[in-house]
Amino acid sequence: MADKREELVLDRVQVKKAVQALLAFLKTKSTPDSLLLDESQHLSLLFTLWKIPKQAQTIRIPLPHGIRTDTDEVCLFTRDEPNMTPDQTQRFYKKLLAERGVKNVTEVIPYKTLKTEYKPFEAKRRLLGNFDMFLSDDRVRRLLSSHIGKHFYERKKEPLSVNLRSKKLALDIQRTIQGTTISISKKGCCCMARVAHSGMAADEIAENIDSAVSTIVTKLRMKGPLIKIIHLKSQSSVALPIYTSNMNHLTLLEETKKQARAAMDAKTASKLKSAKKEQKSTEKNTGAEVEEEIPQLVPIVPPSKKAKLEKQTKKGLEKAPNPTGGKKAPNPTGGKKAPNPTGGKKAPNPTGGKKAPNPTGGKKAPNPTGGKKAMKRKSKRTKKAA
Asked: So what's the pLDDT on residue 294?
């Protein structure tokens, strides 16, 4: 938390003008069906911060005038009472709410019923669409995130914790239902909070805006200048500016940065001085001077030179003598082809082109051994096998 908070003062006249202009615009856009069903649009404040927050935060904002109509349905998640079935637990808490005067809660769901009956995805989506707001017993609030699913958080309908053991239970639930919340994330510098609906009067909307801005400024965990611009808008309208901070906040930011840098420099300088003092004290106590180590010189060994191969000169190479003396051998034919004895004709075939007759008449030659060698080999094989 910052020690000095920003003094944010809204111009009430400007806020009221913006509210009246927005209500007039919504009346022109309304249809006969919406007037017959008494449908109202949500009015929200859009905050633009000077810098992105380092920590995520959820702020509850109590409002002087309730932003929920009587037709809004509220669901309450309770813990499982010992020695009771889910139906008995449901009847027990309904009776408790009736005794304490709580009339805004329309449905009570025990934790065991939520785990068993609303486990499928379709059942969770149906539960999300049937109710406008969800409350939870603070004793089981941390267990609900793994059972309700991510769609409750995407549509900003996550359950708000309530102390069911409080003595002022009706007042606490009424404040929680008729109030609002704002979720500040560390992923961006814009956040939105619902503060009214189109069925309210202009003065009531202006009072809700004033109280919401004051609570956000006091509970926001940031240092230095906080809010840059504030817009008022509905679900189907443009954003109307109702507050714009002065540009002197830029100089304040620069001053805070310079102060932070100066503090860091002072810290580093003090650390260096303390380190030097410690070194001097240690040197005096030991009485030994810190000597620098002299690096030892390593002799450089020259690389061994390899014996160079003797190059053969042209003079050392002698050519072998040519037996012909450099002349070609004479051709005995005088460069002419030898004459063909047959005169270029083929030699005659002595058989007249017919095959020679077979002396055996096509039969195999008889075996001179009469098959005795084969018998001897078979007899030797049988003896060896035996």
From this structure: 60
CB 345: neighbour CB atoms within 10 A? 7
Give the tokens for residue 169: 């239970």
Tokens matching residue 35: 């007037």
Low-confidence residues in the chain, pLDDT < 50: 1-3, 35-38, 288-290, 316-317
Backbone angles phi, psi at 190, to 5 degrees: -115, 140
pTM for this predicted structure: 0.57
Give the model's pLDDT for residue 336: 60
| C-alpha to C-alpha distance for 2 and 165, rounded to whole angstroms | 34
What sign has the CA pseudo-torsion 17, 19, 24, 26? positive
Q: How far apart are CA 132 and CA 136, in angstroms?
A: 14
Pairing of strands 42-49, 190-197: antiparallel
Q: Tens digits of per-residue pLDDT, 185-201?
A: 888 888 888 898 888 88
- Give residues with Cβ within 8 angstroms of 179, minimum separation 6: 60, 61, 62, 63, 67
The H or E element spanning position 379 is helix 372-385
Q: Give 19's contacts (C-beta < 8 A, 6+ positions apart).
A: 202, 205, 206, 209, 232
Output the six-digit token pair for 311. Answer: 């190059």
- Can you give the pLDDT at residue 6? 56
Q: Which amino acid is at 92?
A: F
Distance, in Å, from the CA atom of 260 to the CA atom of 254, rounded to the nearest integer, reads 10
